[in-house]
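To: structure desk
From: M.T.
Subject: fold request, one chain
Message: Could you run this one when you get a chance? Sequence is below, nothing fancy, just the single chain.
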Amino acid sequence: MKYDDASWHYGGDFPNDLPNEAGATHIGMFLAWALLAGLGGEIFADELAEEVGRLRIRAITPGAFFFSVCDGKFIDEDLNELGNAFALDYYESESADFIPDYDATLAVGLPSTYHVPDSWESYDKLKPVIDNRFAQWQSSRPVNSH
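Reply: Done. Structure tokens follow.
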């Protein structure tokens, strides 16, 4: 399943003054959070461990990582089972809170969502918001009786 694709964002009314990569910043922020929280899929542990290491030491920004490593596409294989369950609720559902949280945290006063800088400063502002949503989500899940 494809959650998001940068190319879905840089058509239509995408700001002319920005590079296409700006259409991937919000996706990269979420994926970086998931990977750094231990919610990445097997491919990141196996084939892409070195790239994740660069992300972990902040040698590459979240959006640049996403655009280069994932080719601008965010799919279910990028996450493990728990990561996908959270992404389906927080990122993908009709009532998903990720974009509203992202905009309220990072895009206030900017011309558009796409003008949020792909930076670790942006990530550091957003991370506690996602951490809080993840904690709330986990506490609201039914306890597995097995």
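Reply (cont.): The mean pLDDT is 92. Let me know if you need anything else for the meeting.
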